[in-house]
Amino acid sequence: MPLPPLATSADVTARLGRALNPLENARIDALLADGSAFIRRYCRKDFLSHPGDIIDIRAGGGEITIPYRPVQAINSVTWLSGYPGIPNIGVSWYTFDGIDKITIPDPMGSGIINLPEAWYDVGWYSETFRVNVDHGFPEVPDEVISVLATATIAMLTMPTQAGGVIGETVGSYSYRLQRTGGGISAALKDADLTALDDYKAGKTGTIQMARP
Q1: What is residue 95's three-state secondary structure?
Q2: Range of 144's domain?
Q3: N or C: less crowded end of the chain, CB within 10 Å?
Q4: Per residue in 141-171, pLDDT tens?
Q5: 35 contact partners, CB below 8 Å, separation of at least 6
Q6: Number of domains in the chain
């Protein structure tokens, strides 16, 4: 199923300052879809909201790093026993740093005494946990909408429809420039890519999100 565009025609016309003409209106949906696909690929994010996502992940030294960012909330953490017949246990003594890291102290060393008796009998503990987490973007960030809408306007108003080519003739003077790449990606400037860099995978984990 195709992902929704990261901006709408209303976002484009609001910045363009006028309604789209028939030719522009015929191209707008494809341009927004192309631009959204490029931005998602560049940032390695879908910019969607993922509430209640279930992730099975191994801890390292009692720490779990959620691989999907930004993290909105940790709903539950379950310790998976790894043994048939031995129940999993809900972890209530974890701490979350508000960014992407969960710390789970050793239950024996931290005085946790509510482990099932069978866990004590085994004498070995799994390092795999099941985390129920809300992550992603409740709304597309304004910077992403702005970048896509501006690039779309650049494509719509190009003197020629050939992707990546800009040309103009004024009287006896004319010029033709070939921009790097093609399609809507050619309309993205270095400043646009710099703005998108803040949302590349691995970057937004440093931004603490407000918890609902």
Answers
A1: strand
A2: 9-47+140-205
A3: N
A4: 999 999 999 999 988 887 655 544 455 554 5
A5: 5, 6, 7, 148, 151, 152, 184, 185
A6: 2
